[in-house]
Write a structure and sequence with these properties.
about 270 residues
């Protein structure tokens, strides 16, 4: 009898152990592509009184969202300021991460693209004399971006309001935020999230001058003062009458300065 009981107990023990192992959380590893912005952000780690400069990254499975990631958090990758990257990385989501630490770790597989980005105000080549001179990227123009606020109102004191009449940060700090409105059922969805389809620059067509300017967008959109320079802002605040409006045109462009799409920015004098 004992000869039968002992093997039976061993089998039961193995089965129970197997069930426990199956229920134990496991790390999840996946190969993904990731964009890294030329701009940096600020993150606030636990127990830090001040913010810490960090990278801004966007993963292919979370398109349109820039996330904070510390320098050195991608094993094998060294970030250089002023460079934009498109990487292939191995991402591991830890089942049991260390206390007060991220549950994700990254290691570099390869660098798909590495480009040095120019200064915010970039001279335009002489041949760009009109909108017709702007070359568009393959598959463009297309509807990927929209301006969050749509339009802005400016009063005589230089205070800027959004379309809902709420004041926004002052002229030197205001930003025109772009949002990704591309339908995720679009057959080119994945391709349109890659670097050649990111709005790195904007060609600015102003109603107050024939000159076309090229400005550098931030990770969330261009600065207000880069679209409307100080002399034009002064004209709006001091010379325009209440109720008058202006229409600026932005032709969003990629890192190669090729057009992506056209947006309108409407300014109204309060």
């Amino acid at each position: 009898m004992n000869k039968l009981v002992i093997p039976f107990l061993l089998i039961c023990t193995c089965l129970v152990s197997g069930c426990i192992d199956d229920d134990t959380p496991k790390d999840v590893t996946k190969e993904i592509c990731m964009s890294v912005s030329s701009e940096t952000g600020v993150m606030y780690p636990p127990f830090y009184e001040e913010g810490v400069e960090c990278m801004l990254v966007m993963s292919e499975d979370n398109p349109g969202v820039w996330e904070h990631l510390g320098f050195g958090e991608i094993e094998g990758f060294t970030y250089e300021r002023g460079h934009e990257y498109y990487l292939r990385v191995i991402r591991t989501i830890l089942a049991n991460p260390p206390m007060d630490a991220s549950n994700r770790i990254y290691s570099l597989k390869d660098i798909i693209e590495d480009r040095l980005v120019a200064e915010p105000e970039v001279p335009i080549e002489k041949e760009i004399q009109s909108e017709d001179d702007i070359e568009y990227q393959d598959l463009c123009p297309f509807e990927k971006y929209a301006i969050y606020e749509g339009g802005y109102i400016i009063d005589s004191a230089g205070i800027i309001y959004n379309a809902e009449a709420f004041s926004i940060p002052p002229y030197d700090y205001a930003r025109i935020y772009l949002k990704n409105i591309l339908d995720d059922t679009d057959p080119n969805w994945v391709k349109f999230q890659s670097i050649p389809y990111q709005a790195t620059y904007s060609y600015v067509l102003s109603p107050l001058t024939d000159k076309i300017r090229l400005i550098r967008n931030g990770s969330s959109g261009p600065m207000f003062k880069n679209i409307i320079p100080e002399d034009e802002f002064t004209y709006i605040t001091q010379e325009m009458k209440s109720g008058e409006g202006l229409k600026y045109t932005l032709i969003l462009a990629n890192v190669h300065k090729k057009g992506l799409q056209k947006l309108e920015l409407r300014i109204m004098k309060r």
